Amino acid sequence: MSRIEHHPNQETLLSYAAGALPAGLALVVGCHLQYCPECRVSVNAGEVLGAGLMVALTPKALSARARTSVLEQLDTDLSEGKHAAKLSVAADKMNPSASNPEAIPRLLHRFLQEDNFDSLPWKRTIAPGLKQIILSCDEGDVRLLRIAAGKRMPVHSHRGSELTMILRGGYSDSVGKFNAGDVADLDASVEHQPVADSDEDCICLAGMDAPLAFRGWLARLIQPIVGM
Amino acid sequence: MAELAVEQARNGEFWADCVERIAQERDKHSFMQLFDYFSPRVNAYLLGQGAEAAMAEDLSQEALLALWNKAHLYSREKAAVSTWLFRVARNLWIDRLRKQRGVAYESDENLAETVDDEARLNADGERLKAVLDTLPQSQAQVVYKSYYEGKSHSEIAGETGMPLGSVKSSLRLAIKAFRQHFGEDGV
Predict the structure, then answer these.
(1) Is A148 in the B-facing interface, judged by CB distances under 8 Å?
(2) Which of A34, A112, A156, B11 is most exposed by smallest CB count within 10 Å?
(3) Given CB atoms, is A107 within the 8 Å cutoff of chain B?
(4) What's the domain count of chain A?
(5) Among B48, B86, B164, beta carbon nearest to A47
(6) Backbone angles phi, psi at A20, to 5 degrees
(7) What's the confidence (pLDDT) of residue B102?
(8) Residues B84 and B156 in one domain
(9) A74/A148 same-domain check
(10) A16-59 pLDDT, tens per residue?
């Protein structure tokens, strides 16, 4: 990744730290954090704040049964499965390029299960020079966008919050020049017309705010209880 | 104030010592001290997020057990115990809400590499609450709804009737106030 010039807004990072960003936006922030020590510091500060606020809550004790049950579990060894999972993550971290030559962000890589952007099933869109892949995501809308080299996108604005991270190549718009690792944190007030760099296709990960229906959120809340 | 800070630092150190004793000696007494202090707070946090009582209790147990099982991964230079637990509780809860587990947050193992200078940030709850109490109502409300209820910017806008832009700017101002209060290296 080149030197990062554009970051998610501070309030976006705070909501990420609070666990309050819709999944689509949070995925983009999580990918950016891997490459951006500066934003990791901000998120960390937000987590310290969260911890302080958690500790300041009026305590609600667990049942005596829960306490006993936890005590009993202290003697049970970690399952083999957990050990194995931990090892594979550690290996992945130590040598990301081995299985991941294109440096696909770790979180996205886990999501895509694919090592190369070029072998993904890109779909044409109505905009000439723009292909995309829609990723299924619980909340919000996440897609990979591929703008052909040198192509100019139609002027557009966004309905709600949108986060876009450049993964390969770059583009320019009225806000500035965006390169790999950069994030554009846009809301409905920004109208723009990105133009992809002329030397290669620009691949971005774009997360959009969920059309947040509280009903949907509640439905997800009871999901685990009813065992879905 | 200085004396208070020392007292708080000792508390943070105390909990870090407990986790280290768990890592080195599998010390159950240290674990139960951590459990009795933190589990009611993790539980309160999860209930605030909207977890049913039974699930909040399950997840609180799971979060504290993670501390027992992963104590060897804990590094006091990188995180206060409370911060570590907050992350674990937050991630456990998000995983329950979302079908795709771990879509947006690194695993605890990768989190270890995140930052080196957290030790300088003071996570003391009472002081943070005090700052929160000095904020204008609209700012305190957006912080409260973000952290305690896990609401997104647009959800907060929808609930309060504030325009989305005002929700964002209120959060920005609140962050600024926290930063000023704790100095350059602070929250």
Answers:
(1) no
(2) A156
(3) yes
(4) 2
(5) B86
(6) -110, 5
(7) 57
(8) no
(9) no
(10) 999 999 888 999 999 999 999 999 989 998 998 999 899 989 99
Q: What is the pLDDT of residue A136?
A: 78
Of the candidates B108, B91, B90, B87, the one whose C-alpha atom is nearest the C-alpha of residue B100 is: B91
Which pLDDT score is estimated for B10? 52
Q: How many domains does chain B have?
A: 2
B45 touches chain A (CB under 8 A): yes
Min mean pLDDT across A12-26, A27-41, B94-108, B126-140 is at: B94-108
Choose the final residue of a domain: B67, B82, B106: B106
| CB pairs < 8 Å spanning A and B | 237
Enter the pTM of the model. Answer: 0.85
- The whole-angstrom distance between B118's CA and the closest CA on chain A is 7
Q: Which of A76, A74, A208 is nearest to A143 (CA)?
A: A208
Q: How many CB atoms lie within 10 A of CB B105?
A: 23
Q: Do A87 and A34 share a domain, yes or no?
A: yes
Closest partner residue to A27 (CB to CB) among B104, B124, B164 is B104
Is B9 near chain A, with CB under 8 Å? no
Q: In chain B, what residues touch A62 (CB-CB under 8 Å)?
A: 39-40, 43, 57, 60-61
User: Do the Cβ atoms of A14 and B146 come within 8 Å?
Assistant: yes
Higher pLDDT, B125 or A95: B125
Same domain, A166 and A217: yes
Q: What ipTM was estimated for this complex?
A: 0.88
Q: Cβ of B89 and A54 within 8 Å?
A: yes
* Same domain flag for A31 and A79: yes
pLDDT > 80? residue B48 = yes
Kindly report the nearest CA distance between residue A86 and chain B, in angstroms: 8
Residue A105 domain flag: no
Within chain A, what is the greatest distance between any pair of CA atoms? 66
Which tokens hold the place of A80? Answer: 């083999």
Could you tell me if B159 and B99 lie in one domain? no
B83 and B149 belong to one structural domain:
no
Q: Are B106 and A30 in contact (CB under 8 A)?
A: yes
**Same domain as B117, residue B101:** no
Please tell me whether residues B96 and B122 are part of one structural domain: no
Would you call A117 exposed, middle or buried from its count of C-beta atoms within 10 A (0-12, 13-18, 19+)? middle
Cβ A54 vs Cβ B82: under 8 Å: yes
Q: Which two tokens stand for residue B78?
A: 């990188």
What are the chain B neighbours of A221 within 8 Å (beta carbons)? 50-52, 97
Range of the domain at B134: 110-187
**Domain end point (choices B106, B135, B165):** B106
Judge whether B86 is closer than 8 Å to chain A, CB to CB.
yes
